[in-house]
Amino acid sequence: DILIRMKHVEKYYGAYHALRDVNLQVRRGEKIVLCGPSGSGKSTLIRCINHLEPIHSGRIVVDGTVLTDNPAAIDTVRREVGMVFQQFNLFPHMTVLDNCTLAPMRVRGVSRADAEATARKYLDRVRIGNQAEKYPAQLSGGQQQRVAIARALCMEPVAMLFDEPTSALDPEMVKEVLDTMVSLAQGGMTMICVTHEMGFARQVADRVIFMAEGQIIEENEPEAFFRSP
Ligand code: ADP
Ligand code: ADP
């Protein structure tokens, strides 16, 4: 059961060839850690999956939807794929709760009452339910990133993409965010994570994929990956 399929994907930024013949199949429930040097195309790869970046050629299919430039296809895929960034990207003028209910109400037409119930469920799950009425600036970085994860979960996505979610955090806050991601993984979520946290990779990854210069150059189970020279 393949949930995300990338086939012969090519991506250019101007003349710069950012993704070179990327082929990737992600099974439902699979956890993938994407690693490789800075500039190797990791962020570009996951941004292409929800069309934050258009591709030049190739094919991306998410849960049966072919990702074309068609706005309906883009909306469908963005509803199904949650994304968490290095910078938390919360709306500063909105409470934690309102950050979490906005998209479900606007994009999915969920009633306020239902959106709030869902938001409180996921805020509890990331262990931040008691901060729902606060504003992002009143929270630590680790708490803000957990809100960002809860906000993505409120759309009830079939997969979650993480782009260096702990890289902007003070060291003492990295663990609380990784713990949240581990618990999400253990709950069965399909995940693609760009991260340098190799302990996390060892713990949850079904596959570790290594990129260099826009290409997938190695992929393996974590045990084999970390054994290879
Ligand atoms: P520019 O910065 O030159 O305007 P963009 O990065 O905005 O180019 O790309 C516009 C579109 O054209 C994108 O879909 C991109 O993938 C594609 N594209 C850009 N340059 C090339 C190229 N040299 N070869 C193929 N496709 C390209
Ligand atoms: P990584 O996530 O592995 O660090 P990225 O996917 O962010 O790599 O970037 C891959 C390459 O594409 C880098 O050389 C980067 O400078 C370039 N790049 C990324 N985004 C853009 C953009 N919007 N316009 C032009 N070049 C870009």
Q: What are its keywords?
A:
binds adenosine-5'-diphosphate; 4-stranded antiparallel sheet; alpha/beta; transport; 6-stranded mixed sheet; single chain; nucleotide-binding; 229 residues; Glutamine ABC transporter ATP-binding protein
Description of the structure:
The protein has 229 residues and is α/β, with parallel strands linked by helices. It is built from eight helices and ten strands. The strands form two sheets. It has a six-stranded mixed β-sheet with strand order 6-7-8-3-9-10, sandwiched between helices. A four-stranded antiparallel β-sheet has the order 2-1-4-5, covered by helices on one side. Strand 4 (57-62) and strand 5 (65-66) form a beta hairpin. The radius of gyration is 17 Å and the shape is globular. The chain binds adenosine-5'-diphosphate (ADP) (2 copies).
List the helices and strands and how they pair.
Layout: E1 2-13, E2 16-27, E3 31-35, H1 42-49, E4 57-62, E5 65-66, H2 71-80, E6 81-84, H3 96-108, H4 112-125, H5 141-153, E7 159-163, H6 171-186, E8 190-194, H7 198-204, E9 207-212, E10 215-220, H8 222-227
Parallel strand pairs: 3-8, 3-9, 6-7, 7-8
Antiparallel strand pairs: 1-2, 1-4, 4-5, 9-10
The structure holds adenosine-5'-diphosphate (2 copies).
The site of one adenosine-5'-diphosphate has 11 residues, from β2 and α1.
GO molecular function, one term: ATP binding
Organism: Paracoccus contaminans
Keywords: ATP-binding, Nucleotide-binding, Transport
